[in-house]
Specification:
The complex is a heterodimer of chains A (399) and B (225).
Chain A lengths: L15 H10 L5 E6 L6 H15 L3 E6 L4 H14 L8 H17 L6 E5 L14 E5 L9 H11 L4 E4 L12 E3 L16 H10 L8 E5 L8 H12 L5 E7 L5 H14 L5 E6 L4 H10 L2 E4 L9 H7 L4 E4 L2 H6 L6 E4 L2 H13 L1 H18 L2 H15 L3
Parallel strand pairs in A: 1-2, 1-3, 3-4, 4-5, 5-6, 7-8, 7-10, 8-9, 10-11, 11-12
Helix pairs in contact in A: 1-14, 3-4, 6-9, 7-12, 10-13
Chain B lengths: L13 E17 L2 H10 L2 H8 L2 H4 L10 H10 L2 H8 L9 H17 L13 E17 L2 H10 L2 H14 L6 H8 L4 H9 L7 H18 L1
Helix pairs in contact in B: 1-6, 4-5, 5-6, 7-11, 8-11, 9-10
The chains are: A alpha/beta (399), B alpha+beta (225).
Amino acid sequence: MTTALDDYREVSPKGTVDFLYRLSDLVKGKSVVHVSAVRYGGGAAELLRRLVPMMTALGVEARWEVIAGTQEFFAVVKRLTDALQGRDEKITEDMYQTFREINERNAKTLSLEADMIMIHDHQPAGMVEYRASGAWLWRCHLDLSQPQRRAWTFLRRYALKYDAAIFSLSSFAQRLPIPKFLMYPSIDPLSPKNREMTRSEINQIVDRLGIPRTKPMILQVAKFERFKDPLGAIQAYRIVKKHHDCRLVLAGSGVMHDPEGEAVLAEAREAAGRDPDIHLVQLPPEADLEINALQRTATVVLQKSIREGFGVTVSEAMWKGKPVVGGNAEGIAAQIIDEVTGYVVHSAEGAGFRLRHLLNNPGLIARMGAAGREHVRRNFFITRQLGDFLTLMKIMSPQ
Amino acid sequence: MTQQTGHKISDSTFAFIGCSEVQESLGQQAEDEKELAELVEEVPLDSIHFHTHSYFLRHRFIERAYPNDFSQWVVMQVGDHVLGERLAVVDPFDYPNLEDLREEIISIIDDHLSRMSTIPRVVFGEPFHFKRSRILEVPIGLEARSLGEFRQVVSEVDVSAIYFHMFEAHFRLGREESDFSAWIRSGLDLHELADRIRSINPYLGSLERLRSSLITVCDEFLARV
């Protein structure tokens, strides 16, 4: 479903929509093509699915191309993703060659004529070798702060050929002699994951997930990965549980075909033991309404990650008026205003301490929740990111 | 026009301009207070502007505990409350240009460090990342020809226009006073009101609070005429 920009008047800060119309006047008729690896799944796809129609409606010739690759190629780029995020992965010369060939094939078949070409993440990054016209920008959604050296050396050769790179945070960037812009990710308040829901709709979904609504709920929405620290979340819950009869819900997408996910889920199950108030919920892919309902049901939200790409689940929860207790991963700390919209913590004990403090103070939950909702409205809406893209188009595309 | 003609139509219209900011990382970072001072000395003035003035553009609604990025980092990441407090009371409004503001910040950090036996540094927190912004002016198509119209537009305009006319015009573009007080003085010939608007210190709160102050001053004036 396409959402018109005018639909955001109700939820955006005063004057935002009119401002975006005026801003778009500066780039009307210009063209942009976004290129990503997949059409479904992942933050880039979720963003582009909503952003591209909005740009088109504003008079920008916006297109979204998705690269075609073989199974072998996607296995290679998965390894590259892990290596760029610091995991120890072996990538052979043959694998790099696969990357080059698929990028070349896509560069020759996709229509990349535009004033601005925005390449999302590393999978299609090699197409810059075949650039013809327009400004080429590389939008890196990954945390490149500690990449495996060889993987980054390989990718860096391509990065240098861009006119600019865009990162989510300064600390995610590596040294590059091209302009490095910064752009926070965003949430769409009108998407199924964030739209308002009726009480009965929420209850129906939560009941379907088998979670009783009889106790205060601490919620963490995250994949079952070590970086998300589900065991730390359980440890924090146990500290709280001594004083409050509450429930912990750890909800994440399924772990099928994911050996690490299966292992982490098994460890979490073992840590949970027979505690009937710990719920490990495996959600189907793109379970937007389920996540929305859980976040709206939660009393407080926990994001106990040690490392995060950015972690927009924090903004999603704050938009629903929930204070967030978050680990000191950079993306999370960038979203929470410590002691105003939630707490940034450095340990499972810290998380337990802050959660306990919040559950002891219902008035504080309401105050922090309200401040968080306004903070997200001003800083983490898709309308802000649309403005960022339009501004970049004006700055970077040829006159 | 006299001071009593708040509803009079001016011959000159005030055209509101908003702005959009894109942040750019300079790739330089400080991990202790000495490095902070050295880099404050070295980075382009645009970066000093970013970490002091356009701080407000990024925190439009919620007032943070410390009113510029330097004091915020020193307190929150290094844990040096004394330096943080000293940097927090630096009022950019007191300095005629960014170079003078830069010198004041360096002088405060150097003076602080001269009294310390060790240099405070980040242990568990994050380094200070120097940035700057590229600001795009956006004519937003709203105009005022009277004080009543001016007050109405101020109440509903995107808050970036308040930032542009109160901060950008005055400090980065070097205009003698904010665009608002200048127009009220020359366009509406309302000197007393212009002086009152000029006396509003834009650094003492968020942009939304600044919007409220502007509306209050206009309302008080309109109620008298």
